Amino acid sequence: MWIYLSVLAVTLAVLWVRKRYSYWKERGIPYSEPSFPAGNIPGMGRTKHFSALMQHCYNDLKGKGPIGGMFFFINPVALAMDLDMIKNVLVKDFQYFHDRSVYYNEKDDPLSAHLLAIEGTKWKNLRAKLTPTFSSGKMKMMFPTIIGVAEEFQKLMKTEMSKNDEIEMKEILARFTTDVIGNCAFGLECNSLHDPEAEFRRMGRKIFSVPGGLLRVFIAQQFRSIALSLRIVLTDKEVSKFFIGAVKDTVKYREENKIERNDFMSLLMKLKNAEPLEDGNVSKMDPLTVEQIAAQAFVFFLAGFETSSTAMSYCLYELAHNIDLQNKARKCVTDAIKKHGSMTYEAIQDMPYIDQCINESLRKYPPVSNLARKVTKDYKLPNSDVVLQKGSTLIVPVYAIHHDPEYYPDPERFDPDRFAPDQVAKRHPYTFLPFGEGPRICIGMRFGVMQARVGLAYLLKDFKFTLSNRTPVPLKISPRTLILTSEGGLWLKVEQL
Fold first, then answer.
1. CA distance 419 to 274
2. Can you give the pLDDT at residue 15?
3. Model confidence pLDDT, tens digit, residues 404-437
4. Per-residue exposure over 52-65, b if at least 16 CB sit within 10 Å of its own CB, e if not
5. How far, in Å, CA of 56 to CA of 395, rounded?
6. In this structure, how many other beta carbons lie within 10 angstroms of the beta carbon of residue 90?
7. Of 79, 103, 129, 469, which one has the greatest count of Cβ atoms within 10 A?
8. How confident is the model at residue 396 (pLDDT cuts 50, 70, 90)?
9. What is the dihedral angle through the alpha carbons of 392, 398, 399, 403, rounded to the nearest 10 degrees?
10. Are 450 and 387 in contact (CB under 8 A)?
């Protein structure tokens, strides 16, 4: 009897999986052939980075329609293939795709309920209130703080050079951006430049060490209702305790001592206390709790230090690979300083070739390699009878588009001239999406680019970089991280000019 029941159960399971895997075929959508149990993501987090898996599906499906089908485990996922379709998803038809499909658990894991993850009206209201923090006026106010950290960064480089002419730049750049973000988001001196084991830097490293790894994050995301019912928490307990504690202490100190600063924390405190904002209006949102403030400060820290330091690391690596490009970038920096008298805000804004180098680095190595969107109501594809069902997921394959030879000939070559104004004008604007686009474009984009400009300008004006024998060519991408990051360190030979 038990044998028959077992055979029946296995048969039904096989039929159910086959039915799931026929989802796109039944709808007449071209799809990448899946294999059980991983679908189209075998080896993710172990042997292959998510970007490479999406690139494989993109190359397989390109030219077959505006969307293609694939599977994350047994869940059908749409892959946006056409640039105009991507524009519809991110901008034109945003009302159908306004949520990011990121797992969060506000009750058990308060730091996970941040601007990047929250959804619907709650996201819309919070986004509107936080946007003024990243205006060009606010950037200018924060600029002296960034320069102060950059001066310490420069001193550290000279100290490190006195010990060895080969320096591991990836970690030092992460310490630089950690101190910048800590100052601007929390108003705290993190001191990680002078102490690699400073609490903020230690927590920064630990943020990306999710227990169970990338696969745990992905499974929680794909089976959200089950993960929520099981009260799955993705933030490390020590990290959560540290950041909530740091925010509580900062808020208490500022309120008791009547301290006002032009930074992210001051705006969050106004939202907590229902005080008038920059426009003179009181927020219509419910006042934020300290935990909700901590979540927003946490994501600013998380997104700001890692993505900017990674972009600078890749840019330095490529410039060390090509001394002619490095000399051209250095001349751009020195010309701007000469024109403006010193490393002023205006000088940093007047370095077009540095911007081209940063953009080409973000093109070749986009920190966020894919954009995920949840279909929030049934969406009928333009000029088609195909309907994307409410609750399904759509992926915009950023890395694959950035490496498509149709848009970027010889895509593995680092060429900042791709981002000269005349070249940019020739391309479809949705061929370059390192920060996303539309209403959910990265809110801290200006800040991230500004700290990358400052960091690279300070490095290039005083130092020359060449490849070390300890640095692999090409760089090996770690399969175990969400952010597109290289395996191991980035060792470069450094010579003071």
1. 43
2. 77
3. 999 999 999 999 999 999 999 999 999 999 999 9
4. bbbbbbbebbbeeb
5. 13
6. 22
7. 79
8. very high
9. 130
10. no
Residue 145 burial (10 A CB sphere; 0-12, 13-18, 19+): middle
For residues 207 and 195, give the distance between their C-alpha atoms in angstroms, rounded to a whole number: 18
The answer to whether the beta carbons of residues 301 and 204 sit under 8 Å apart is yes
Tokens of 105: 């658990």
For 437-481, write each residue's pLDDT tens digit. 999 999 999 999 999 999 999 999 999 999 999 888 888 888 888
Residue 176: predicted pLDDT: 95
Cβ 373 vs Cβ 97: under 8 Å? yes
- Give the global pTM: 0.93
- In 3D space, the residue among 4, 293, 14, 286 whose CA is nearest the CA of residue 130 turns out to be 293
Average pLDDT over residues 321-339: 97
Q: Tell me what pLDDT residue 305 has.
A: 81
Angle, CA 86 vertex, CA 84 and CA 91 arms, to 5°: 95
**Is residue 119 very low, low, confident or very high in pLDDT (cuts 50, 70, 90)?**
very high
Residues 332-348 have pLDDT tens digits of 999 999 999 999 999 99
Report the C-alpha gap between 335 and 479 in whole angstroms: 40
